[in-house]
Amino acid sequence: MHAVGAATHAFAGKGELYQELAAEMDALLAGEGDGIANLANAAAVIFDRLPDLNWAGFYLLRGDVLVLGPFQGKVACTRIEVGKGVCGTAVTQRASMRVEDVHAFPGHIACDSASQSELVVPLMRDGRVFGVLDLDSPRLARFDSDDQAGCEALAAIISRHLAVTPPA
Ligand code: SME
Q1: Cβ 134 vs Cβ 55: under 8 Å
Q2: Measured between alpha carbons, how far is 84 from 68 in angstroms, rounded to an integer?
Q3: In ligand 1, which atom is closest to the CA atom of 115?
Q4: What confidence tens digit (pLDDT) does each residue in 107-141 have?
């Protein structure tokens, strides 16, 4: 076990962290039917548990505009048009956007000047995008394919809990 290389060890550690986080997220959201309460706690647990983040939260689709939802971090822009920025591009492409250097992304919208890299994952319900999970980091290339897979799993859990009918 101690003979594994650093890279292998880091990979295993990250997988474990996302597995734990997924279980924690599922348990955290299961007891509550209110969407805002669940998005607020989801942002808090992600911001608390994932290292090297300066912003974690949600934008929700209202017509053709993404509107700021619950988040942790500095004050952010409240509206992003579909197709604009990293968030709006994730909506049009219906796919996660992993940006190693936000300054190299044409049209990136800078909310916090400390942000260097970004991961945006669409929230889907019945095959339609209804918002995004957005993570910013002050570290270049903070997010790798394991983070993308882990956050896509978290986004699926969050979307599922938002889709359930609140308990009476
Ligand atoms: N950088 C995002 C804007 C939202 S903030 O990062 C919180 C974008 O380009 O869409």
Answers
A1: yes
A2: 14
A3: 6
A4: 999 988 999 999 999 999 989 999 999 999 999 99
Provide the CB-side half-sphere exposure for 55 (13 A, CA): 26
The predicted-structure confidence for 77-105, as pLDDT tens digits, reads as follows 999 999 999 999 999 999 999 999 999 99
Using a 6 Å cutoff on CB, does residue 114 contact ligand 1? no
Helix (H, G, I), strand (E, B) or coil at 115: coil
87 lines ligand 1 (CB under 6 A): yes
pTM of the model: 0.91
Output the CA angle 70-76-81, nearest 5 degrees: 90
Rounded to whole angstroms, how far apart are CA atoms 88 and 56? 16
Residue type present at position 146: D
